[in-house]
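Annotated sample (chain length 333).
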Amino acid sequence: MGKFRDSVDGRALRFAIGFPLVLAAGFVVCALLVKSDLPEPLAVRWTDAGAADFAPFAAVTGAGAALIVVMGWAVLLQAVPLSRPAMMRRIMMGAGFAMSLFMATVLAAVLVGQLGLPDARESHVDASVLALGSGAALAMGVVMGCVFKADERWSVDDDLAIRQALERERDPDLARDFVRLWVHARSSIFVMLGIATLLPAALLSIAVPWLAAVLVAGALVAAAFLVARIRVDRGGLQVFAAGFVRVMNVPAAAIDSATARDVRAADYGGWGYRVHGSTTALLVSSGPAVVVDRSDGRRLAVSSGSAATADNMARTLSRVADRARRNGGTPVA
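Output written by the structure step:
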């Protein structure tokens, strides 16, 4: 519960929950005040020939109030998490405020267009109420977005950041033992992949849609494995295909040596993620890479983007491996 409170803006949460409820209650009260002047049942859909569908008063007011609440919550609650950028929270607060008012305006226009009529077949949506209310809703949404204070507040992320800063202050070498980078294939490779799969998929979509979907899915998977996120710290080496699928996790104490080399992808089975015997590789292209020899005899190869980055990664891995061995095989966090 404490983590939840630290991750949300309490005042924004109370407003996001309470405002749609109050607005929906106001709509129901106003509808009850004019119920005697409304026909029964009420029109809820119109065509060129006039009213087409009808519903009882209770169903219209109940569904309308529920719609105001659901639409308001769906947008306003997006402004509550503190982890989101301040500008995004402002936009979502203004948009949710305007959306709630707009839904109330539409429902009011439906009721006003039927006031004083004995039969709902002669009714229409009141254009003046709809136009004036929509304009007011938009203006109020802009004002709300401008006045809403989405200031960043101290959170658990700030606690973590200050702890990390103190650790770096106590241990100046900690920053040197941390490397994080993204590697990806050349843009021409993605263009070729798109030409080889997406164009045939577009043609096949006319005759065999499911096969076209399979081709597109295959292209996306292949492209994802030509992008990787690499993290090196005192815990060891971690490699994530497509940025989030962890395919390699080597503890620092298990690293025997790390060498920067200029490799050919064909020697390791080709581009992408490959496992062949005792060798595991994730190469997005031929060129600079880091080859890691594990203490259990297995070998790994990872693209590094440039020769300078490969040399830095290799030296960092060697340094953290030596530190882990000196500490008895326990990686330092």
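Annotation: The mean pLDDT is 85.
Annotation: The CA atoms of residues 197 and 217 lie 10 Å apart.
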